[in-house]
Inverse folding.
């Protein structure tokens, strides 16, 4: 229901009486049908599923959501947190892995 | 890749019964399906249940990318591979490049520098002569670049509709240097796992021009001959444990084959696996996992810890290995399985692909 | 990719996890409805990072998995007919019908093609006027509008050799069916974000109220999943049960009105069988009488095909969280990812298939001691 990704509209054209666009997904460009978002403009982002733009992506809302996440867990920071400790125990890679990420 | 690569099963002493995904292989498959050529579990079963028992022989039992032979006291590698790619020309290469580099790389994975190739063409009636000539030129150029000579060849034509334009088979031989013994059975816990650069590039380049999936992307196949890179690595130490070129089935298939054949566990750190943005994004759009996407110019190496840094340096100094990375290591836990530490700190099992990878909607 | 990468950020994920860990005081069972969300959870190992008290039950939201055996058998029959080009999303090819799958139909000479979009199938129909082109129209409310538009276009452009084999399903009736089950364990839902991008959230307040469960509209990246879990857990701890939208960048309350209008025009609501679960009233769509000429079931007269689900498969219980996959008698023996009996073993997102993989990891003694992963 399911795999839909956000892409940016590059250009819009009418074809066979259907509103079509080229949409950029981070360097991957596909043809997308805009019939369900007739007022979508070049430069805007939309959620695309199997070649159809289904909903406009609200960039302001995305920003606010990320800002909200950034304010979470501030309290725990001062005390060290159980999740990190659990994750450390799970770490099976020795320092050799660090070498590669210089 | 040669038929002998797609296996996990014949070395029964190390086979983990719990890792066996199908209790009744082939029984439900009365005909060949595409997955039997996909380099995953179905390919392995075909080799294990049909070809290996029919052929017999000790050498085939090695089931590596290439067979290591001893002939007149000389150690050599011998490999064959068939090429059926659509379209014939794709961004960054053609079936001609693949036909050379595929076999050269299979030989390289046993440490051998390819010396001679054979080349068999199966042409479909009606295919344009100019197309054949372009493929032949590409093949010749690739052979020269790899420093290998096409020494013998053959041509057959099949009726229109019975082929896909051009099929090519190549076989190659090369000498294995003294002291070099690359086999998954040599892998031990503590070995370091490295790749020679960005993964998934070839598969995404091919998919971008495949009918029904077409998309625009500025990415070219990484198709390249790896003989020189392997020589540079062996120059550091002949004591590498195993090399693979992760073609069909991608990095996931290669790591699973090695884990199964060596009876060890493989742990990789996902954020260290180099995936270019274009590959990641194409995979995001199509619902694919870069770990399962084909490469044609990359290798994965299992190296003793003591030599890891020096080998990595040598790889990075070679033009085809500048983006080499350590991605993980071999552990005693979970023998036969590949486990990835995810970017968030969780883990997931990276399983052997069953057949060809398909775009998802879900 | 912009708006994906940011929502995979490990540092922000830690903040969300910290918050969840410090909020939870007792056990809660949450269901993520959508298979795409299950995929994210498995792919990033999110379930292992949550507190032990938070149990995620993988819901019936993989459209590939829940397509009933009977419809698969109809697809196999149509795809086997001479002159037919059968087009499908890639992940449907591996789903077994009775005794075979679409790959095997292709192996036996059928013309089965993978396409990215239903519009690709329509184009194939235009290019092959002498062939019958059938598209396998499966999926939830997200995929239904693209398929509806394609049929609408076929009719508008007069492309007579195109038809759709429809097996669409709807989420709200499935949530209702799960909650009505007497032994249901689900206490809160992560609703499928992209379904709501189309349909809006109007169908959910009544369900949340009637069954007294929080329903949080949730996106698909790791941070989205964590935020969906966080908001659900906050509600549960407070004893609340409202509809909340944790995916506002892609979901408006009203959904997409143009898409909803098209769905009304092209489809009629119908009862639909779900693989492994059975018939759920009003849980599907079929083509409306106006589009009957484009209905593959009608055109190829396959409505007589009736198939019963295998009796051994208990995936319905698994989907409701009543049965752990390994407690099923068929698990790992009769039923494996290679030889699946039911919905939950079919795709890698299915609860049984996911469990199958991790159970192998668990069974390794060294892992059991060394790692908190499992």
């Amino acid at each position: 229901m399911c795999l839909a990704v956000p892409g940016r509209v590059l250009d819009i054209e009418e074809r066979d009486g259907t509103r079509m666009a080229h949409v950029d997904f981070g360097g991957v460009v596909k043809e997308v049908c805009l019939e369900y978002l007739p007022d979508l403009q070049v430069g805007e982002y939309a959620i695309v599923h199997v070649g159809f733009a289904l909903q406009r992506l609200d960039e302001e809302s995305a920003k606010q959501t990320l800002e909200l996440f950034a304010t979470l867990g501030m309290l725990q920071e001062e005390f060290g947190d159980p999740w990190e400790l659990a994750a450390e125990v799970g770490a099976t890679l020795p320092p050799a892995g660090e070498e590669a990420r210089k | 890749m040669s038929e002998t690569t797609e296996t996990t099963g014949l070395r029964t002493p190390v086979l983990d019964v719990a890792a066996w995904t199908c209790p009744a292989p082939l029984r439900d498959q009365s005909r060949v399906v595409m997955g039997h050529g996909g380099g995953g579990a179905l390919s392995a079963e075909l080799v294990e249940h049909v070809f290996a028992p029919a052929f017999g022989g000790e050498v085939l039992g090695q089931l590596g990318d290439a067979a290591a032979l001893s002939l007149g006291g000389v150690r050599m590698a011998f490999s064959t591979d068939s090429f059926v790619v659509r379209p014939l020309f794709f961004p960054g290469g053609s079936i001609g490049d693949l036909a050379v580099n595929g076999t050269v790389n299979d030989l390289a994975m046993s440490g051998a520098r390819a010396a001679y190739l054979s080349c068999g063409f199966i042409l479909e009636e009606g295919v344009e002569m100019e197309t054949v000539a372009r493929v032949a030129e590409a093949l010749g150029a690739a052979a020269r670049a790899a420093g290998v000579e096409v020494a013998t060849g053959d041509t057959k034509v099949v009726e229109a509709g019975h082929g896909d334009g051009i099929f090519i088979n190549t076989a190659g031989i090369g000498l294995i240097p003294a002291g070099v013994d690359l086999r998954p059975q040599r892998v031990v816990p503590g070995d370091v796992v490295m790749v020679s650069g960005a993964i998934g590039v070839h598969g995404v380049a091919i998919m971008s021009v495949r009918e029904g999936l077409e998309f625009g992307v500025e990415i070219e196949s990484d198709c390249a001959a790896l003989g020189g890179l392997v020589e540079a690595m062996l120059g550091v130490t002949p004591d590498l444990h195993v090399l693979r070129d992760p073609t069909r089935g991608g990095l996931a298939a290669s790591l699973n084959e090695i884990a199964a054949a060596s009876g060890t566990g493989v742990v990789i750190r996902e954020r260290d696996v180099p995936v270019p943005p274009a590959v990641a994004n194409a995979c995001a759009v199509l619902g694919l996992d870069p770990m399962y996407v084909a490469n044609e110019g990359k290798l994965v190496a299992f190296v003793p810890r003591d030599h890891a840094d020096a080998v990595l340096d040598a790889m990075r100094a070679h033009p085809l290995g500048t983006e080499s990375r350590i991605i993980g290591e071999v552990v005693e836990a979970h023998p036969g399985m590949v486990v990835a530490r995810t970017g968030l700190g969780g883990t997931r099992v990276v399983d052997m692909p069953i057949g060809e990878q398909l775009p998802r909607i879900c | 990719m912009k708006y994906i990468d940011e929502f995979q950020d490990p540092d922000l994920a830690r903040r969300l996890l910290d918050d969840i860990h410090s909020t939870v005081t007792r056990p809660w069972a949450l269901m993520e409805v959508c298979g795409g969300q299950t995929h994210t959870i498995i792919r990033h190992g999110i379930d292992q990072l949550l507190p032990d008290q938070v149990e995620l039950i993988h819901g019936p939201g993989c459209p590939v998995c829940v397509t009933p055996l009977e419809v698969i058998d109809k697809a196999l029959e149509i795809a086997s007919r001479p002159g037919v080009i059968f087009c499908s999303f890639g992940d449907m090819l591996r789903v077994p019908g009775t005794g075979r799958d679409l790959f095997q139909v292709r192996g036996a000479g059928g013309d089965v093609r993978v396409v990215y979009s239903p519009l690709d199938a329509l184009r194939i129909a235009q290019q092959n006027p002498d062939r019958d082109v059938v598209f396998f129209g499966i999926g939830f409310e997200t995929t239904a509008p693209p398929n509806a538009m394609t049929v609408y276009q076929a009719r508008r452009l007069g492309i007579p050799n195109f038809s759709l084999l429809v097996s669409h399903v709807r989420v709200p009736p499935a949530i209702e069916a799960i909650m009505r089950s007497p032994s249901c364990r689900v206490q809160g839902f992560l609703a499928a974000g992209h379904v709501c991008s189309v349909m809006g959230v109007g169908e959910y307040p009544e369900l949340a109220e009637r069954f007294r469960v929080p329903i949080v509209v949730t996106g698909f990246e790791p941070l989205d999943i964590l935020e969906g879990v966080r908001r659900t857990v906050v509600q549960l701890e407070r004893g609340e049960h409202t509809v909340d939208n944790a995916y506002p960048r892609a979901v408006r309350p009203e959904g997409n009105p143009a898409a909803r209008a098209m769905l009304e025009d092209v489809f009629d609501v119908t009862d639909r069988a779900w693989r492994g679960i059975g018939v759920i009233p009003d849980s599907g769509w079929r083509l409306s009488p106006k589009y009957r000429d484009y209905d593959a079931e009608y055109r190829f007269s396959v409505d007589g095909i009736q198939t019963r689900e295998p009796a051994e498969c208990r995936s319905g219980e698994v989907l409701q969280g009543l049965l752990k996959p390994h407690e099923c008698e068929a698990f790992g023996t009769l039923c494996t990812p290679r030889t699946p009996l039911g919905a939950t073993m079919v795709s890698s997102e299915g609860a049984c298939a996911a469990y199958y993989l991790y159970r192998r990891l668990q069974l390794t003694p060294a892992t059991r001691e060394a790692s908190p992963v499992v």
